[in-house]
Design a protein that fits this description.
253 residues; alpha/beta; Rossmann fold; 3-stranded parallel beta sheet; 40% helix; binds zinc ion
Length: 253
C-alpha cells in the first residue's frame, strides 16, 4: 500500500520536474531545428517549418500506409490498403501523423544516431500533439523493445526515451516489461519485402498483465508494419483488448 503511494508521489514529482523543464525552454534562446532561425519557444520548430511538415493524411485507416492517388479511389469504400483488405494486421490502428520524409526523417536520424536530445524533445511534442487530438481510452503505454547490442552502441533507445516522457505528459503508466524480445532480430534494412514481413515473427513475448488492457504501443517509425504486427500478435495472445500503434513517421510502401 505504502509502496503504491510512494510510486504515485514519485511519479507526480517527475511530472512536475518535466513540466518545469519544458516551460524553461521558453526563456532559453534556441533555434528552429529545421531552418536554424533563432527563436524562443517551448518548441524548437518555427511556424513556417511546422506548416511544411509532410503530413500523412491520405493513408490506410488501419496501418496508416500512405495511399497513392490512384489507389485512393479504389480503396475509398473501405479506407484500407490492399494488404489490410487481404490480411488484416493484429493491431487495431496506427497513428503516424507524418511521412518518413524531410525534415521528419532528418529529425529522427539526429535523435536516434546522433543522440540530439533537442530533436528528441521536438519529436516528443509532435507525438503528444498526435494523440492529444485522438479520443482514446488507454490503460498503459508499452514500447517495441530494443536490441541490447544496438542500444549499447547508440547510447539510447529512441522509443523508450520517448515513451518515458510521453507517459508523463499523458498521465499514462509506462510498462516497459509488458513486452519483451525473445531473440536478436536481423536488421530489417538488409532484407527483402517478404523476409522483412516474417523476420519479427515470434520475436516478442508479452506479460500476463496485458490481459483485458487497452494499450498504446510506441515505435519511432513504422516501415512495413511487420514489427508492429508481430508485437501485437504477442500482446493479443496474452489477452490484450486493444493495441494502437503510435509512431512519429510512416514510410510509404
Ligand atoms: Zn524553421
Ligand atoms: Zn493498411
Amino acid at each position: 500500500m505504502l509502496s503504491t503511494k510512494a510510486k504515485v508521489l514519485a511519479n507526480k514529482i517527475k511530472q512536475q520536474v518535466f513540466r518545469l523543464h519544458r516551460h524553461s525552454r521558453v526563456w532559453l534562446p534556441g533555434e528552429c531545428l529545421v531552418c536554424a532561425q533563432p527563436l524562443s519557444s517551448e518548441r524548437d520548430l518555427c511556424s513556417a517549418c511546422t506548416a511544411q511538415l509532410p503530413q500523412n493524411n491520405h493513408c490506410c485507416r488501419l496501418c496508416a500506409e500512405p495511399l497513392p492517388n490512384l489507389l485512393q479511389e479504389e480503396s475509398s469504400h473501405s479506407g484500407l490498403c490492399s494488404r489490410c483488405r487481404k490480411n488484416p494486421p493484429a493491431f487495431d490502428a496506427v497513428i503516424a501523423p507524418w511521412l518518413y520524409a524531410a525534415p521528419v526523417d532528418q529529425l529522427l536520424w539526429r535523435f536516434k544516431y546522433q543522440q540530439q536530445r533537442t530533436a528528441g524533445y521536438l519529436l516528443l511534442d509532435l507525438l503528444h500533439d498526435a494523440i492529444h487530438s485522438t479520443p482514446l481510452e488507454l490503460d498503459a503505454l508499452v514500447v517495441i523493445p530494443g536490441q541490447r547490442e544496438r542500444i549499447r552502441a547508440r547510447g539510447l533507445h529512441a522509443p523508450t526515451w520517448l515513451a518515458q516522457r510521453l507517459a508523463l505528459l499523458q498521465g499514462l503508466a509506462f510498462q516497459p516489461s509488458w513486452l519483451q524480445s525473445t531473440r536478436t532480430l536481423t536488421s530489417q534494412q538488409e532484407l527483402g519485402r517478404k523476409a522483412r514481413w516474417l523476420n519479427p515473427r515470434g520475436a516478442f513475448k508479452a506479460a500476463t498483465e496485458v490481459q483485458g488492457k487497452h494499450l498504446l504501443l510506441l515505435d519511432d517509425v513504422v516501415t512495413t508494419g511487420a514489427t508492429a504486427h508481430w508485437a501485437s500478435v504477442a500482446l493479443k495472445q496474452q489477452g490484450a483488448r486493444e493495441v494502437v500503434i503510435l509512431a512519429a513517421a510512416r514510410t510509404p510502401a
